[in-house]
Amino acid sequence: MTSHILRGLSCGPILFLWLCLCAQGPATAENVKITPACKRLVSLSPSLTETLFALGLGGQVVGVTRYCLYPEAARTKPKVGGFFDVNYEALISLAPTSVVILSEDMRTHAFLKRLGLRTLTLNHRSVSGIMDSISRLEEFCGVSAQAQILKTALQSKVETVREKAHLLPKRRTLIVVGRSSTAHALASVYISGTDGYYSELVEIAGGRNVFKNKTANAAQISIEGLLALNPEVIIEIIPHLDRHGWNKAEIIQLWQELPHIAALKQGHVHVITGSWSDVPGPRFVLLLEELLKAIHPETQT
Question: Of 3.20.190.10, 3.20.20.140, 3.40.50.1980, 3.30.750.24, which CATH number belongs to 168-300?
Answer without folding.
Answer: 3.40.50.1980
